[in-house]
Amino acid sequence: MRDVSKSYTNGGTVLALKEVNFEVGKDEFVCIIGPSGCGKSTLLRIIAGLDQSFSGQVLFQGNRISRPSSRITMVFQTFALLPWKTTLENVQIPLEVNDVGRAEARERALRYLTMVHLNGFEDAYPHDLSGGMKQRVGLARALALNPDVLLLDEPFSSLDELTAKDLRVQLLKILSDPTLPTNDFLMITHNVEEAVMMADRVVVLSPRPGRVLGELRVDVPRPRFEHLRDPKFFDTVDRLMEMLSSDPSA
Amino acid sequence: MKRRFAIIGGLGVLAVTYAYAYFFSGYPEAKELPLLTLYTLARISIVFLIATGFGVAVGVLAGTNRTVGRVIIPVFDVLQSIPVLGYFPLLLVTLVLAFPGLVGRELGSMVMLFTAMEWSIFFGVVGAIKGVPYTVQEAARGFGLKGRSYFRNIIAPAIVPALLSASTLAWNDGWTFDVVSEFASYGNVQYAVSGLGSFIERASSGLYPDLAAAWLGLLVMGEVVIITNQLIWHPLSDKVAKHSAHLGLHVPERIFHPFRAAAGQRRRVFGLRFRVELLNRARVKYGFSTKLMAGVFLAGLAIIAGTFTLSDVVPEFSVVGDALEGLNLAALPIDALLTLARMTVVYLGCLLLSLAVALYVTQRRSATKYFYAVYDVGRAVPYLALFPPLFATLVAFLPGGVGLEISSFFLLFMGMIWYILFNVVTAATFLPTELKEVSAVFGLRGWAMVRHVMMPAILPAIITGSILAWGGGWNVVIYSEYAKVGGKVYSMPGLGSLLDQAASSGNSALVVVYLFMISGIVILLGRLVWRRLLNKVEKRGLELS
């Protein structure tokens, strides 16, 4: 992202993002943290190609992102499943729309549903699934397209803490699977511990207008859920908290 | 500013119409148009106030007291489902028998207007009360709000927006049904009260050598509806919409995003959506007790059949038996099918048109404001009043049957289209942002988007609109399959015209039988089509909108 700025007109003009610069490397899991309303979600939507009215440049493998593509998919905060489609259809339809043959789409959808431990729920409708299950469908849907980059928009914040805790561990296991074609991840969250648990690197945004306050490489060894009590873990959390509370413009 | 201009302009046009009628038309009654307008305006206003008071009182009772609600809501639901025009003649005759002369006729006219207005208001109030979030109810009880303080602080603020939205519809419905309420014939007797509606009806059926007076009357009626809408309902609903938005009441936040237009325009669109949405939802959600309706229907059928059978044995019942001699059982299914076919054709046309408009509007946001402007005017047309002059004009050029078919189709269209159009277009325009984003991210574009996302998303709106449209359609059918112009009777084969013929010959027993036929079809459609669709939608956890 090069000098990305974004403003809204809502009565007056509100600056949401101000000259944001950062990069996500190959095979990297990057987390963006920041307080509510700092423009994190907007940033993710710009990267997804959903929002094109901004200034600056967003490049993906050297090319400008001008519209959504199947190489960058997203997991939504509120799951965003189609309520009128079964679990299987929710995963399968995007595949078919993206020119995967019907038989293969079905086979792939089933494979990814098994990967997120939802075998047996193929014919259930979202209405009948728990929050954690819905988000796993969302994950299967996003991964099944074999994207290069997976965007995660606060994927755990609509869940209760116990479910979220479980799902974080599961997600890390799934994403670290060496056979998974997707290896670049960008997640936004306002939960610092969550960021430290998941990410290789954390980018910290300021309150509105969102600017990059700094970034930090997370040195805690993986699998992280075995190191949640390490002094290094707490140390990283503390340093991120410090960065969040240091606003040079204030 | 724009609105003030519209009102002054509207009053100016009305004045010019009056002046023209007074100085240039040769029709003596046309000179009295201002007076006739006042009569009708007064009648509709009085009934409106009564309907509002009744609707609020009974609605609050039904909404807050579970036992009362369990009795009243299904009963009102049955009443709202039976086409009012079907039982109006019987009701009128009964009232005139009880109160002979003008009192009975005025009473009949007012009861008719009341039935046309009441259901919107009642269901609007009930829906709003049931829509008060449970947490708010608990908090209120926790803070000791009871009785009057509960009403003042919780119920009243909750029902004001719904009441306003219902009032707008009720007011327009009152004008739509005015022409029927002011003029009816049963047997060889005509029951009329003075007013615009009866003027239009009589001027169309051969009072004057030409139809200019009838069109003039219709013009005046249309102008009055538009002026009162501009003067009263639009400012009020904009105000309440704005107010509710501040309170965070029933205002999905996304509504404020898709429009780049000025805040005023957004409020306007919101106000419109608001007016109809609450109401439609309440009417379908809290109504629809098809089981009770089926029970009432079967009981009635049993009584009719019993009377018919007994008429050979018990001499007291032979009058009914004779009356039912006119029943042509062989023709009945064909007539019923013809009416249903007409309604289905118009309904499908309305649905397709609505979907096309919805697709167009979602592609071109700028078309939205034109859509709502057209809707606003179209919905306000008192379409039933359009029928007498339209048919009388057509019949001068075309064979009677063709003229009647055309008028009937057009009237059905006007009676059905607005419910479907508004619900479908609004639902499509306000598709949740989340659904739009998910479609974009996963490549659902064009037809795939329409098929997998848009159509299922707006299905609840289609169902709501359809149920209301069919309700309106039945009244139109009863009114428009039969007409008298210049002493000549025109009718086309259909259930509505059978009912009208029975009423016109004063055969009450036959009227009841046909009314039961129609109610039976309404119940069957409800159970076989709408209830199933509603169940399907509810199973997916979707909200009715």
List the helices and strands and how they pair.
The complex is a heterodimer of chains A (250) and B (545).
Chain A: E1 2-10, E2 12-20, E3 29-33, H1 40-47, E4 55-57, E5 59-60, E6 63-64, E7 72-75, H2 87-97, H3 102-115, H4 131-144, E8 149-153, H5 161-175, E9 184-189, H6 192-198, E10 201-205, E11 212-217, H7 231-245
Parallel strand pairs in A: 3-9, 3-10, 7-8, 8-9
Antiparallel strand pairs in A: 1-2, 1-4, 5-6, 10-11
Chain B: H1 2-23, H2 33-64, H3 66-81, H4 84-98, H5 102-130, H6 134-142, H7 147-182, E1 183-186, E2 189-192, H8 196-204, H9 212-247, H10 263-285, H11 290-310, H12 318-324, H13 331-363, H14 367-380, H15 383-397, H16 400-429, H17 433-441, H18 446-480, E3 482-485, E4 488-491, H19 495-504, H20 508-539
Helix pairs in contact in B: 1-9, 2-3, 2-5, 2-7, 4-5, 5-7, 5-10, 7-8, 7-9, 7-10, 8-9, 8-15, 9-10, 11-12, 11-20, 13-16, 13-18, 14-16, 15-16, 16-18, 18-19, 18-20, 19-20
Account of the 3D structure:
- The complex is a heterodimer of chains A (250) and B (545).
- With 250 residues, chain A is of the alpha/beta class.
- Chain A folds into two domains: 2-71 and 147-245, P-loop containing nucleotide triphosphate hydrolases (Rossmann fold), CATH 3.40.50; 82-146, no CATH class.
- Helix content of chain A is 34%, strand content 22%.
- Chain A has seven helices and eleven strands.
- In chain A, the strands form three sheets. A six-stranded mixed sheet of chain A has the order 7-8-9-3-10-11, sandwiched between helices. Chain A has a three-stranded antiparallel sheet with strand order 2-1-4, with no helix packed on it.
- Chain A is globular.
- Chain B has 545 residues and is an all-alpha fold.
- In chain B, strands 1-2 form a two-stranded antiparallel sheet. Chain B has a two-stranded antiparallel sheet with strand order 3-4.
- In chain B, 79% of the residues lie in helices and 3% in strands.
- The model of chain B is unreliable at 246-279 (pLDDT under 50).
- Chain B has one domain.
- The radius of gyration of chain B is 24 Å and the shape is globular.
